[in-house]
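Re-run with default settings, no changes from the original entry. Doing this only to confirm the output is reproducible before filing.
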Amino acid sequence: MRGRDQIAAILPDMGRIFLLIGLVCLTPLVVGAIYHEWNLLPAMMTAPLAFFIIGGLLSPLRVPAGQAHLSVAIAAVACIWFVCALVGALPFTIGHHMPFTDSVFEAMSGWTDTGLTLIADVDGTPKTLLFWRSFMQWLGGIGIVAFTVALSRRSGTLQRGLYRYEGRSESLMPGVVATAANMWQIYILITALSTILILLSGVSLWDAVNIAMTSIATGGFSVHTAGITYYNNILLEMLVIPVMLAGALPFKLYYLMLHSHRRIHILKDPQARVLFLLVATGTLVTAFDLVTKNLLDLQTALRQSLFMVTSAITCTGFQNGNPFEWTGATVLFITLLMLIGGSSGSTSGGMKIGRIITGFDGLVWWFRRIFHSSRAIVPFRYEGRTIPHTVAEFTVAKTMLTIFLFIFTGFLASLILLHLQAAGPFEVADVTFEAVSAMCNVGLSTGFANPEISPVSKWLFIFLMWFGRLEMVPVIVLAVGAIRGFD
């Protein structure tokens, strides 16, 4: 198939995805009706209407004979997410009169579960738009394509390619449709349980629903300008922590808990063990810094460090402290936790704990081979099983390349931001913190990303959120394919 035919082969599938997204994006209209925000309904309707128009134009197109290359499906994932951000921006621009760049920033932050915001007065924003932000994060948490694949009940090579390269790696069942459907059933159940749990803190149902949606999605958008600190409720903070951790654990564990006939112990999962170890270690280190360098009392230091470290490692973005007031060493330490991120197969961003484990095991394997005879076969174990030498080489190389891309992109983005934007009161550590927060879809902020930064800086943040959420590959494939024509 020629390059043009390759693209034509994927367009009808993209069209059906946009039609399904448009259908579920009617949900915020119900919220607008409940709160009698009738004037917001036309603006809110622009998003589903745009999805319907795009989907209606693409889905009837004729599919050429032959099978499109996997690279086309991978590039399509990047296109779908970027189009969603552009369309998701319309209600903010039309209904809240935000500049289009700021609106795209807000929508991309929503779909990618980042949580950075350019809305200065969140409390003064209509509830319909606040729910739209939370709803985007909730949908984006498990994946736009995962959601639509589950609804479409269609499977095939293209569907598998779309699903796998959306940052999804888990395979709960043999078919991608069954896997996506089971993921969403689990996701909805945990969201409902999280809402009930958060209601125990005494907040209203409106607040509980939004907090639960953005916590389990590890997104971090809040319905108040002050975020979690608005409530000044330590019980709420303690109840949100297990929800954030639930979003950062491999969803495969929940599937096994529901469907396996044997008892499943979370701590037997290596990713879960590393996640809890990082939270515990990070809490102790950060609390020590806050007591010795920021002179906070021990209770406040522990409260802030436990919540902020959990928020960082799970890539949620809720904060009950201000990193701008912390020392550079503490900020860089939290930056490292954000860079690592949560578990593979979770709603978290970052490099993923699964990759860190594989990368570490790969380095150990490499050094063991150095100290053995060249004739000796040193086995490499991956996900509990021994894999062939050639497969091990490829797995470790791919893992290390992804880790390198994350670190290099974070460094390069920080350097560009320092050249584009006058840092003002912000130190280099603050700018690096913000760049990594955007790239790893965290949302913790020192205040550097704000409505006053230049449009170029805003678009760089938009790119970082998009690039990091899709774990680099789809965006790179899209760029290379656009140059080469997918031949």
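Strands lie at 380-382, 385-387. The chain has a mean pLDDT of 90.
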